[in-house]
Write a sequence for this structure.
């Protein structure tokens, strides 16, 4: 059985992103887009709406882990004020993985 080749197209230069190390997922206003790391740097300099931290970057991964642990603590306490923030961050990270990152090796 042949495996279907999966690919992602850079939103800036319209070339294929072939390596997971070169993939940067970022928000443009309300949309999640994929970029090459070089294209993301160029876009970051020229865009007012581009976020400074990529969705699949180290900072976002650490925030997701911290909020995941905080979510476990909320289950055992009565402090529900940040539940929506935790669910939102975890949802964004999962969406990024399902839409972009799982397709690359």
């Amino acid at each position: 059985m042949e495996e279907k080749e999966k690919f992602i197209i850079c939103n800036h230069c319209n070339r294929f992103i072939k390596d997971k190390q070169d993939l940067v997922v970022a928000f443009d206003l309300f949309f999640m887009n994929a970029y090459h790391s070089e294209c993301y740097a160029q876009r970051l300099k020229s865009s007012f709406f581009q976020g400074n931290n990529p969705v699949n970057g180290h900072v976002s991964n650490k925030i997701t882990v911290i909020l995941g642990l905080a979510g476990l603590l909320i289950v055992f306490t009565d402090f529900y004020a940040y539940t929506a923030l935790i669910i939102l961050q975890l949802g964004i990270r999962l969406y990024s993985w399902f839409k972009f990152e799982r397709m690359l090796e």
The chain is about 45% helix and 15% strand. The helical segments are 37-46, 58-76, 83-99. The longest strand covers residues 23-28.
